[in-house]
Fold this protein.
Amino acid sequence: MEAMLRGSRAALELHGRDAPGVHIVLGNEACDLDSMVSAIVLAYFLTKTSLEQKTAFVPILNIPRSEFPLRGECTFLLRESQLSEDLLIFRDEIDLQSLHKEGRLQLTLVDHNVLSRADADLESAVMEVIDHRPLERPFSPGCVVTCEPVGSCSTLVTERIVQRAPDILDKELAFLLRSTIVLDCIDMAPAAGKVTPKDSEYVAVLDSRFHDLPPSNTVFEALQEAKFDVSGLTTEQMLRKDLKAVFGGDVRLAISAVFLTLEEFLARPRVKEELEDFCRTRGYDVLVIMTVSFNEKKEPSRQLAVYSPCSHFKELVSCALEKSEAPSLQLLPMYSPSSEIAAYSQGNRLASRKKVLPIIEILLKALETKGATAMHGCHGWKETSNIAQMVPTSCADICQDEDLQLPPTPMNSLVDGCPLDGGLPKLTPEDILEKINQMPGKRLAGTPCSDSH
């Protein structure tokens, strides 16, 4: 493994006629443990099995190097595997666009299946996708796609190695893969709603071949502790530690997973001002904070907060989350220190960010469809004016309409069943906005939202 990583870095330093083709194995922008291990191990597999002698297979961690210390579980597992961080290559250390223009770039995506907007011009270089999320990319005859709803992408990478090149599987690879699957699948506990039969199958395969791997519960507890250790982090670092951003028209929304109770997080000094600074600096209009903590029985407890400097954005997002039925989040209001922060306890402990994200995406898609330019009006720190025609005074007014139901959302787990078990949705996202605009007397006065300090 170490030799492969050193060779990857050396290959990137070659230029001119001696420069090889470069096949990048790219993880997702969250760069969690599953993304990191899937990229590293698949690149190793390709290096060992490919017939392309003039191609270097290079795993890339899709974050700047400065962000890596925030990935506690990643740094911990590397130390346990005796792999130096210095061997890794991060996104700010390679120019994929230049490689693409030179005709030297091929891409395999792991733990995601669609390139970010910033990388959209690299789409023609995508040769393969291995992912465990709902498939979003359109069909392309030049791209081989493996996409299955398992608990961990590393399960699919393990399957690839076991089926095609079992001889390259050694204890180091087995430790990396098994540790990642165990963490993603919450120590393989069915009650947690993550593990699938395929995850269990390939953990069993690894255990049967390498009997001296440490006990899975020991690995899980150590990684869990490292992942959730936020001691010494600022509020800004906590929010950046595990963040995903989504867009709808001109609306930018971020979802951060924070590993504290919501009460502890909201009790931090100047929390409202720090949330405002965080969103202003990065251009986010809405910030959703999903907190995760664990009780003495290691059962997860989830809470949720919605922050926006614009009350109408806050209410619209809060309403969508409160009224979602596929899945139902079972939200109950909690105390909040600021009117700009809506706080909730979440009764549905199985509804992770992967299940909450599609609810948000449906809402943003509806807003985008109705006209992206109109959405400038509710930016809390921007001078704009057309939001009156897009967002009602109170989202509760919409939610009280007995005929209005948000459409079912995609699932990344088999736990809750198929979203369409109850039949097709009554309304499309466009219908939701149409309902809003048809409500008599519910348009705003035509003035933009302003900051409240």
In short: The chain is about 35% helix and 15% strand. Confidence is low (pLDDT under 50) at residues 372-377, 379-429, 435-448. The first helix runs from residue 2 to 12. Residues 359 and 409 are 6 Å apart (CA to CA).
